[in-house]
Design goal:
- By secondary structure, the protein is mostly helical.
- The protein has a domain of 30 residues.
- 51% of the residues lie in helices and 0% in strands.
- It contains two helices and no strands.
- The protein is flat.
């Protein structure tokens, strides 16, 4: 007798309405404040560069020699 089922049982759960609302509030507060948005953007870019550096050093990425830098440009006309 086998203890393992050959059929997968999948259950789907939804966030409760309160959780969805809270996530919406957090997202809007983060991304409507320009200073917070720029800080998050730079943080995410930095994390991506750190991962790329790790992959290069471990030999799993062949783009060695490319500069690992973040360039941020603004458009004064578009503010």
């Amino acid at each position: 007798m086998s203890f393992f089922s050959t059929q997968a049982h999948v259950q789907t759960f939804e966030f409760k309405a309160e959780t969805k609302r809270l996530l919406d509030i957090v997202a809007k507060s983060l991304y409507t404040d320009k200073d917070v948005f720029v800080r998050e953007l730079l943080s995410n870019a930095s994390d991506a560069l750190e991962k790329l550096r790790f992959l290069q050093e471990s030999g799993r990425d062949t783009r060695v020699g490319e500069p690992l830098q973040i360039i941020l440009r603004t458009d004064p006309d578009k503010k």
